[in-house]
Amino acid sequence: MKKKRNKRKISETTKQRILRFVDSVASMIVLIVTIQFSTSQYTNYISGGLLFLTIGGSLAIRSGIYLKNGRKLNGIVGFAFAALITGCAVYIFAARMDTASVVFACVSYIVYNISSRVLFMMKNHKPYSITVNVIIIVLLLFFIFMVITSVYADMLPMCVMLVCVLIGAQALFHIIYISFSQIKLGVLLKILRKTFAFEIMSGLVLMILSFSFVFKSVEESIKTYEDALWYSFALVTTIGFGDMYAETVVGRVLSVILGIYGIIVVALITSIIVNFYNEVRDEKKEKVPEKGETENEETEEVKEEKSENK
């Protein structure tokens, strides 16, 4: 019985990983096609049709994930808008870049984002998330107003460009979200609380901020504070882009100090995170099976008592 349950758990986790991978690939394709459509100056009907076709496919994949996770309303709404946008894409291919189909596809995509934000607010009632989502909804309504009014003001290319920026930004942030969701940020926060990693990181940040002021005032090649921060970041992470370098004695001495401190901090934090990450993850894995095993043992004991009483 235990082996069968383990196999089921393994199959569920592999399914989740496959779905995440497919979702991230779909978002990457949407980002690539959005850039392609933007470079064609919104006149190529093949790029326009592919853009909304990939958006429809990406929404369909995401809606399937929602249904898999038990979020039926999100899944149904997502599939409805995926069908609408896919239909617009087919019409764009058939009509060779019809204005009405492009406008309807853009509006449908924005309305889908509004509906997903509303559904999110229905589940999460925290004041911070409600405020952020309300601001986003107002901005999306402004996007819809701009797209509709642009048809009458001959400003459609500019509004389509804004919608493409919105689509590309969402695809990029979705890829980042999927990537960072695998890191288990909650576990990392626990590690920062339990260890001295927070103090080490704060010391590194303070050193970067303070040394950047010196680099800006001493080095002629570093003209702005942003450039000084960029140089310090490249120095600490040992990337060494070579676009900026220290020429004065003070700058070189500070670069050596910051470089050595960065190497020590990276080595310490890496070892701390790896060790404690495994410990916290193992603790979570041990807690879940223990509950399941005790429940199974109780049910088996109850069954045995019932059979004995009979």
How would you describe what is shown here?
The model is unreliable at 288-310 (pLDDT under 50). This protein has two domains: 15-182; 187-295, Helix Hairpins (Orthogonal Bundle). It is 87% helix and 0% strand. The protein has helices spanning 2-39, 45-68, 72-95, 99-123, 127-153, 156-181, 185-194, 197-218, 225-236, 249-309. The protein contains ten helices and no strands. By secondary structure, the chain is mainly alpha-helical. The protein is globular and about 65 Å long. α2 runs antiparallel to α3 and α4 (99-123) packs antiparallel against α5 (127-153).
Return Rg in Å.
27 Å
Shape: globular
Helices and strands: which structural class? mainly alpha
Give the number of DSSP strands.
Answer: 0
The secondary-structure element order is: HHHHHHHHHH
How many helices in DSSP terms? 10
Distance between the termini: 25 Å
